[in-house]
Amino acid sequence: MLTVQNVSFAYDTVPVLKDISFTIEKGQHIALIGASGCGKSTLLKIIYGLLDVDQGTLFWDDQKILGPAYNLVPGQENMKYLSQGFELQSYRTVAENIGQFLSNFEPELKAGRVNELLEIVEMIPFADTKVENLSGGQKQRVALAKVLAKRPELLLLDEPFGNIDNFRRSSLRRNLFAYLKRNKITSITATHDKTDILSFAEETIVIHKGEIIIKGNTHTIYKNPENYYIASLFGEVNELPISNFLSDGDSDKTVLLYPHELQIDAHANLKATVKKSYFNGNHFLIEAVFNNRVIFIEHPNALQDSEEIGIHVSKEIIASRS
Ligand SMILES: Nc1ncnc2c1ncn2[C@@H]1O[C@H](COP(=O)(O)OP(=O)(O)OP(=O)(O)O)[C@@H](O)[C@H]1O
């Protein structure tokens, strides 16, 4: 189990993390989300032991996690950290990089393990290619295989799929998390991609300006976001006065609605004016103006600019959010 207790940290004098506390059970997959600069990478580095905290303590089971001031070689033995810059040796091959820290005593065992890792990251054809000749996305996949090589107990991933195209990203993500589950490897993934969060993280930690504002079940946080900041980390969101939907609604209270929760219905009483339609693949995102606010609605078709539309939201959704 990972235990983080009252951790605070500042670079020089600028506070970055404030009184962070949480625990993570073994085998869990956690998403770490928050606006750019909120302190996600810093927290991962602290957990790995790359930075000395100003206050607080961290434990992996009953082993205290110490920073570089107390550890000659920074970084915890039973963890691996995949940073946003991948630390690879560019003049060596993909297979050599992945096997760099594996024992040479049993070459066959080592080769088998390297092959298994190449398969997970779908890089078998590149085993003998020098890293310097790979694309950014391919390097990221090699870096991922390298951190898995020695079977860490805790894997800390910082935007692990950031450079990888959508086509590969989906299968890579499925392979990786299936592997982690099978091997009971705990993971914390700092990410801006909602697919990383919703499909693979059973729990999510939300950071805002260096503080944890919520930690809990991913689906619950998504379905009932406590505030606009949290909801916006999952994509576009509309914040509308609840009095628009409930005749006895408090005029100061608002309700958060994702674009797919708003429906366009010519008979609805609430009227908005279309500004623009954005093609999004299987739907259009309609930007419209409603009571002087910009709102976003998912719709199967594009609509005419300046067209008047009616907006409907199901009673169940309003009831669940109010
Ligand atoms: N080495 C450093 N020295 C001084 N300030 C730093 C250093 N590294 C990060 N910071 C600052 O600390 C804050 C948190 O940075 P951090 O990289 O942890 O954020 P993040 O949430 O991971 O951001 P992103 O999502 O953009 O990767 C930022 O304001 C950043 O500018």
TrEMBL record:
<dbReference type="InterPro" id="IPR003439">
    <property type="entry name" value="ABC_transporter-like_ATP-bd"/>
</dbReference>
<keyword id="KW-0067">ATP-binding</keyword>
<dbReference type="InterPro" id="IPR050093">
    <property type="entry name" value="ABC_SmlMolc_Importer"/>
</dbReference>
<dbReference type="Pfam" id="PF00005">
    <property type="entry name" value="ABC_tran"/>
</dbReference>
<keyword id="KW-0813">Transport</keyword>
<dbReference type="InterPro" id="IPR017871">
    <property type="entry name" value="ABC_transporter-like_CS"/>
</dbReference>
<feature type="domain" description="ABC transporter">
    <location>
        <begin position="2"/>
        <end position="234"/>
    </location>
</feature>
<dbReference type="InterPro" id="IPR027417">
    <property type="entry name" value="P-loop_NTPase"/>
</dbReference>
<protein>
    <submittedName>
        <fullName>ABC transporter ATP-binding protein</fullName>
    </submittedName>
</protein>
<dbReference type="InterPro" id="IPR003593">
    <property type="entry name" value="AAA+_ATPase"/>
</dbReference>
<keyword id="KW-0547">Nucleotide-binding</keyword>
<dbReference type="GO" id="GO:0005524">
    <property type="term" value="F:ATP binding"/>
</dbReference>
